[in-house]
UniProtKB/TrEMBL annotation:
<dbReference type="Pfam" id="PF14821">
    <property type="entry name" value="Thr_synth_N"/>
</dbReference>
<dbReference type="Pfam" id="PF00291">
    <property type="entry name" value="PALP"/>
</dbReference>
<keyword id="KW-0028">Amino-acid biosynthesis</keyword>
<feature type="modified residue" description="N6-(pyridoxal phosphate)lysine">
    <location>
        <position position="107"/>
    </location>
</feature>
<dbReference type="InterPro" id="IPR037158">
    <property type="entry name" value="Thr_synth_N_sf"/>
</dbReference>
<dbReference type="InterPro" id="IPR036052">
    <property type="entry name" value="TrpB-like_PALP_sf"/>
</dbReference>
<dbReference type="InterPro" id="IPR051166">
    <property type="entry name" value="Threonine_Synthase"/>
</dbReference>
<protein>
    <recommendedName>
        <fullName>Threonine synthase</fullName>
        <ecNumber>4.2.3.1</ecNumber>
    </recommendedName>
</protein>
<dbReference type="InterPro" id="IPR004450">
    <property type="entry name" value="Thr_synthase-like"/>
</dbReference>
<keyword id="KW-0791">Threonine biosynthesis</keyword>
<dbReference type="GO" id="GO:0004795">
    <property type="term" value="F:threonine synthase activity"/>
</dbReference>
<dbReference type="GO" id="GO:0030170">
    <property type="term" value="F:pyridoxal phosphate binding"/>
</dbReference>
<keyword id="KW-0663">Pyridoxal phosphate</keyword>
<dbReference type="InterPro" id="IPR001926">
    <property type="entry name" value="TrpB-like_PALP"/>
</dbReference>
<dbReference type="InterPro" id="IPR000634">
    <property type="entry name" value="Ser/Thr_deHydtase_PyrdxlP-BS"/>
</dbReference>
<dbReference type="GO" id="GO:0009088">
    <property type="term" value="P:threonine biosynthetic process"/>
</dbReference>
<comment type="similarity">
    <text>Belongs to the threonine synthase family.</text>
</comment>
Length: 431
């Protein structure tokens, strides 16, 4: 299967080419040329398949030209070695826990899948690939962990000094080997703009093969559709129509859910829940897309002012606003509402949510007010310990550090400090 650029459908690439390039030469995002529905029997019998079998069937059509079946099976086994439980909190309200992976945020699956694909494509190649990525927190750890020890791939992660949590910093600065952390004296936006400048700098690209590891890369974006199938497998016997509420920032996760629906999975409706960064909720009100600079919130992994994957969602609906509205609602919630929800959930069911999951919960409840006859699943995208300050401050309790977090906390931080783009450039040219 080919993937075409959303800027010009004539610009096409194979899966392999699109993964290595990240973005099309015309700067468009890649999109699959077809999404062929899976057999009804697959969905009717989904509970009889293992997660590995489900993932294989779901992603096969997109990657099979470039990855042989036996290798794909191996990749899926490497990537999916933890659980994705659905936990019911109230009648018709459940959460899908996506935080049981090595860095305890949902980005582990996409990052590991991409790392495995790139590792496979790099076998026998003479030039190494450099993955350059800016992080506001969770992406860095997931990418570092996913790519650790992958031959032929070097990873350079830029993060804003003093603006990520201790846990997040340890996760991205302590691994060593092929992972390098660059600590930027600036904001996340500065990190991101340095990465963009490097991709356009021919002094660098003449010497090094660069790619990105955020959700614009199809190998990071597409495998996220597995989550929705795993949730469906666990809840289809509830006998109600299923709705998903997805805490959204760059809208990669929810867009992957919509691809699962295109594959034939029965879903009544999607809800994109956001924090105060409300570009998409406003778009869903009036059909005007108006990107604005992001504002800081307690759910900081969703502080995005121009969500990069929303264009893929619009494309899925051929830019037909009425059709999109039938399948998607989007609501924005302020931090005080989110804190109140964390408290309410905790006092009613004893469950501790992180601030992102709580935003998802709020979106779900809002939609169910006028659609009560549905079974609602909100995605819990990170373990509460990853946002320890907010959880402690809001709920007055300290969740215990899980073993995979304890392991990194004792390790020594190593980073290269830079102030300007020139610092990044000389590092890339000299390494
Ligand atoms: C990245 C992230 C999100 C947002 O996901 P998108 O795919 O960018 O919409 C939500 N919650 C957490 C915890 C994240 O790390």
């Amino acid at each position: 299967m080919n993937f075409y650029s959303l800027n010009n459908a004539n610009n096409q690439a194979s899966f392999r080419e699109a993964v290595i390039a990240g973005i099309a030469p015309d700067k468009g995002l890649y999109f699959p040329e077809r999404i062929s529905p899976l057999a009804d029997a697959f969905f009717n019998n989904i509970e009889s398949f293992s997660n590995h079998e489900i993932a294989f069937k779901a992603i096969h059509q997109f990657v099979s030209d470039d990855i042989p079946d036996a290798v794909l099976k191996e990749i899926i086994e490497n990537v999916l070695d933890f659980d994705f439980p659905v936990v019911e909190l109230e009648e018709n309200v459940a959460t899908l826990e996506l935080f049981h992976g090595p860095t305890m945020a949902f980005k582990d699956v996409g990052a590991r899948f991409m790392a495995n694909c790139l590792g496979y494509f790099s076998r026998g190649e003479h030039t190494e690939v450099t993955v350059l990525v800016a992080t506001s927190g969770d992406t860095g750890g997931a990418v570092a962990n996913g790519f650790l020890g992958v031959d032929g791939v070097n990873v350079v992660i830029l993060y804003p000094s003093g603006k990520v949590s201790d846990i997040q910093e340890k996760q991205l600065t302590t691994l060593g080997q092929n992972i390098v952390a660059i600590e930027v004296n600036g904001t996340f936006d500065d990190c991101q703009s340095m990465v963009k400048t490097a991709f356009l700098d021919t002094d660098i690209t003449n010497q090094k093969k660069l790619t990105s590891a955020n959700s614009i890369n199809i190998a990071r974006w597409l495998p996220q559709l597995f989550y929705f199938l795993f949730a469906y497998k666990q809840t289809k016997t509830k006998g109600k129509e299923i709705i998903f509420s997805v805490p959204s920032g760059n809208f990669g996760n929810i867009c992957a859910g919509m691809v699962a629906q295109k594959l034939g999975m029965p879903v009544k409706h999607f809800i994109a829940a956001t924090n105060a960064n409300a570009v998409v909720p406003k778009f869903m009100e009036n059909g005007t897309y108006n990107p604005i600079p992001s504002v800081a919130t307690i759910s900081n992994a969703m502080d995005v002012g121009d969500p990069s994957n929303f264009i893929r969602i619009r494309h899925l609906y051929q830019d037909n606003f009425a059709k999109l509205k039938e399948n998607l609602s989007s609501f924005s919630f302020a931090d005080d509402t989110t804190r109140a929800a964390m408290k309410a959930i905790h006092s009613e069911s004893g469950y501790v949510t992180d601030p992102h999951g709580a935003v998802g919960y709020l979106g779900l409840k809002k939609y169910q007010k006028s659609n009560s006859d549905t079974y609602g699943i909100f995605l819990e995208t990170a373990h509460p310990v990853k946002f320890l300050d907010v959880v402690e401050d809001t709920l007055g309790l300290s969740p215990e550090l899980p073993p995979q977090i304890q392991k990194v906390m004792g390790k020594e931080k190593k980073s290269i400090k830079i102030n300007t783009y020139e610092g990044l450039k000389s590092y890339l040219l000299d390494s």
